[in-house]
Amino acid sequence: MLFNSIDYFLFLTLVLFLYYKLNHKWRWLLLLVASYFFYAAWKVEFLGLIVFSTLVDYLCGIRIEKSSDNRSRKLFLWISLVSNLSILYTFKYLDFSIDSINDFFSQNFVLYNLVLPMGISFYTFQTMSYSIDVYKGNIKAERHLGYFALYVTFFPQLVAGPIERASRLLPQLKKKVHYNPTNLSNGIKLVLIGLFKKVVIADRISLFVNEVYNNSGDYEGFVLILATIAFAIQIYCDFSGYSDIAIGSARMLGIKLMTNFQTPYFSSSLKEFWTRWHISLSQWFRDYVYIPLGGNRVVKWRWYYNLMITFLISGLWHGANWTFIVWGGIHGLMLVLETINLKMPDFKLYRFLKIVFVFSVVCLAWVFFRANTISDAGVIVSKIFSSTTKVGIVEDFKSTGISLLNTLILMYGVTILMILDWLNFKNIVITKSYLKLLGSLVLLFSIIALGITEVKEFIYFQF
């Protein structure tokens, strides 16, 4: 059941209706059943993994809190972490490990070809953060199994985040919520923005990106540059669009999920970019990997090491492929170079040039993120830097098969996106009701008239 499908909106409408009709004390049960149904609609056999992870972390959390000696507390923390990481490794990284061994040592071990359970990278990280926070004494262990299970499986953010902390989400799940028209209207607005990003921009621009990246040998530098910029737009619209729909769906239920994207392509440094891109994951790695390694409160070489390790692990989290590890390594290396570089005056022209530079670096890294193999990425990067001009540029672009109509629709969609992001970046809030209504109608009309009707998965579902 995908967010960009009719099935989801029928499901959400039914849940909303029952939610506000039910007595508060039974709402958790409705949301839990709805969340399990939402996940089972994909593959019911993987529901057992979520239930197992839920029970392990629920019991470990209580045992961590009850244990009087530090040795027992550490034992139950490790049971929680090892259980979750074992599940994640088996389904996501086992075949990658075997394949890497086969390549490096010329072996021929058989791959298991396991199906990756949807959302496994997200809900395992969410439950691990709970166990760690209980161990550190940041939160109390949750005694109500139903509420804890709902924290793990809350359907708006189950599949691809935001990765919520128990200290933020659990109290909201328990709080008595009254129907609020403002929550409903704000939620609908976010859902419309998310759908616009997904079906008008991301799904349409993917036609161009897929054609060029799947046949990169047929194209030269200029088209490859365009395709890489197009992928930067695609992945932003696809993932932030998902987050908008998730946050909007939760808002209709009176629950505020954390912001996951904050105009990342207006960043003037890589450090700023990672405070604006996939914020919930960035904060997770900051709090549970980077800071425990020592953060920046160490000697310089160790600081650089901590940055690199954090981003290499972040790359591996995104996918079981060396391309993702290289992608993470590029970001880690550029952040290290940023910490070494001297600060420059932040006058307007210089800031604009920094934004262009950061976007260029991010796009270069996206080549490895999108390419199927390291070899493919190497060919694309080589062509980008060696043949950025060619007499037949227009003919090259035409050969991708992207029609003039699609190009015009994308230009319209990206223009609307830039306006929305600029308003957000400048913290400009539209208060006049007629302007809000007009904006919502424009988005709705665009989705209906210009959106790709074929239901396509979100990119981050594969992670």
From TrEMBL:
<dbReference type="InterPro" id="IPR028362">
    <property type="entry name" value="AlgI"/>
</dbReference>
<dbReference type="InterPro" id="IPR051085">
    <property type="entry name" value="MB_O-acyltransferase"/>
</dbReference>
<feature type="transmembrane region" description="Helical">
    <location>
        <begin position="145"/>
        <end position="163"/>
    </location>
</feature>
<keyword id="KW-0808">Transferase</keyword>
<dbReference type="GO" id="GO:0005886">
    <property type="term" value="C:plasma membrane"/>
</dbReference>
<feature type="transmembrane region" description="Helical">
    <location>
        <begin position="349"/>
        <end position="369"/>
    </location>
</feature>
<keyword id="KW-1133">Transmembrane helix</keyword>
<feature type="transmembrane region" description="Helical">
    <location>
        <begin position="6"/>
        <end position="22"/>
    </location>
</feature>
<keyword id="KW-1003">Cell membrane</keyword>
<dbReference type="Pfam" id="PF03062">
    <property type="entry name" value="MBOAT"/>
</dbReference>
<dbReference type="InterPro" id="IPR004299">
    <property type="entry name" value="MBOAT_fam"/>
</dbReference>
<feature type="transmembrane region" description="Helical">
    <location>
        <begin position="75"/>
        <end position="94"/>
    </location>
</feature>
<feature type="transmembrane region" description="Helical">
    <location>
        <begin position="404"/>
        <end position="423"/>
    </location>
</feature>
<dbReference type="GO" id="GO:0042121">
    <property type="term" value="P:alginic acid biosynthetic process"/>
</dbReference>
<feature type="transmembrane region" description="Helical">
    <location>
        <begin position="222"/>
        <end position="242"/>
    </location>
</feature>
<dbReference type="InterPro" id="IPR024194">
    <property type="entry name" value="Ac/AlaTfrase_AlgI/DltB"/>
</dbReference>
<keyword id="KW-0812">Transmembrane</keyword>
<comment type="similarity">
    <text>Belongs to the membrane-bound acyltransferase family.</text>
</comment>
<feature type="transmembrane region" description="Helical">
    <location>
        <begin position="106"/>
        <end position="125"/>
    </location>
</feature>
<dbReference type="GO" id="GO:0016746">
    <property type="term" value="F:acyltransferase activity"/>
</dbReference>
<keyword id="KW-0012">Acyltransferase</keyword>
<protein>
    <recommendedName>
        <fullName>MBOAT family protein</fullName>
    </recommendedName>
</protein>
<feature type="transmembrane region" description="Helical">
    <location>
        <begin position="29"/>
        <end position="55"/>
    </location>
</feature>
<feature type="transmembrane region" description="Helical">
    <location>
        <begin position="435"/>
        <end position="453"/>
    </location>
</feature>
<keyword id="KW-0472">Membrane</keyword>
<feature type="transmembrane region" description="Helical">
    <location>
        <begin position="303"/>
        <end position="318"/>
    </location>
</feature>
